[in-house]
Amino acid sequence: MDQQPTTTVPATVAGGLPFAECPRWHEGALWFSDFTSQVLRASPGSAVEVVCDVPAAPAGLGFDPQGRLLIASMGDRRVLRLDDGTLVEHADLSAIVPAGLNDMMVTADGGAYVGNLGADVPPGEECLPAPLVYVDPAGRPRVVADGLCGPNGMALADGGWTLLVAETLAARITAFAIRPDGALADRRVWAQLGPEPEARDLFTAMRTGPLPDGIAIDREGALWVGNAGGPAFRVAQGGEVLDRIDVAGLCVYAVAFGGEGLRTLFLCVAPPLTTYWPELEAQLNDPQRQGRRGRRAQVLACQVPVAGAPRAAGGEPSGPQDTD
């Protein structure tokens, strides 16, 4: 992790947020979740606008083939769909997922892979091995992988036939082959990013090494990795760090490509959880809370030398295609 930064200094897209996460580029705008209660959208030259309120807190976002927004609703463990301005249930995962939902990857046919951190506990308490769930286009969920250490951000490689999953509490990126029915096979380590933490809790893991969070793949097949323990970095398969973006003592919780030619990398940043959690927890308990405390997250943007991979525009439908 001693690679010197080579990208441009990030510019601010939005600030004064409680906690921004899960950015997606869609139809010329950046969509992202405010973990307290809302999905937001930032369009070039316009103010940030509220897309919808999500009472149980939004996490992962994506878009189905009809362009409808899908939302991983953390607290009630459901995937919601925005239909003509109204949120409806797309899938209920509460019977098969042990913790609040987290990031989500939506594929070309409207299927969705949904992660979670393994237990609904504060960041200083240990999480359990967690399942990865696939929701088919009809809204039927099933577990497709188990025993993951905090399955979090995801990206699609190899034309949509490989799923890359950030295991936050194991400091690694894990790869799976995607079958035509959404099942996963051939589980393997794509990159070990640092020593595997001795304890499966966020605070211990932050003292051990990088915490891979949201990820985005570029045209050369390298990953930009949001790092809940520090700066974002670009990594090749096998673990070689190629580039880094420092954010002045903040942590980069998620990244996404967007903008013209997918040459802009958007970053969701906030203070380290070890210091920010008490403020954020208060904000989560009272979404109407005002003032700077609990509102120190930002969305930044910078130009990067290698553009995002086609069909990996942070939310544009991507993944396996029918070959019939």
Describe this structure in words.
The protein has helices at 202-208, 273-285; strands spanning 11-17, 20-26, 29-34, 38-42, 49-53, 58-63, 69-73, 78-83, 86-92, 101-106, 112-116, 130-135, 141-148, 151-157, 162-167, 172-178, 184-192, 212-217, 223-227, 232-235, 241-245, 251-258, 264-270, 297-303. Helices cover 6% and strands 46% of the residues. The strands form 6 sheets. A 4-stranded antiparallel beta sheet has the order 1-24-23-22, with no helix packed on it. Strands 2-3-4-5 form a 4-stranded antiparallel beta sheet, with no helix packed on it. The protein has a 4-stranded antiparallel beta sheet with strand order 6-7-8-9, with no helix packed on it. It is mostly beta strands. The model is unreliable at 289-293 and 312-319 (pLDDT under 50). The chain has one domain (11-303): 6 Propeller (Neuraminidase). β7 (69-73) and β8 (78-83) form a beta hairpin. The radius of gyration is 18 Å and the shape is globular. The protein starts with 10 loop residues before the first strand and ends in a 21-residue tail after the last strand. The protein is built from 2 helices and 24 strands.
Q: Layout of SSEs?
A:
Blueprint: E1 11-17, E2 20-26, E3 29-34, E4 38-42, E5 49-53, E6 58-63, E7 69-73, E8 78-83, E9 86-92, E10 101-106, E11 112-116, E12 130-135, E13 141-148, E14 151-157, E15 162-167, E16 172-178, E17 184-192, H1 202-208, E18 212-217, E19 223-227, E20 232-235, E21 241-245, E22 251-258, E23 264-270, H2 273-285, E24 297-303
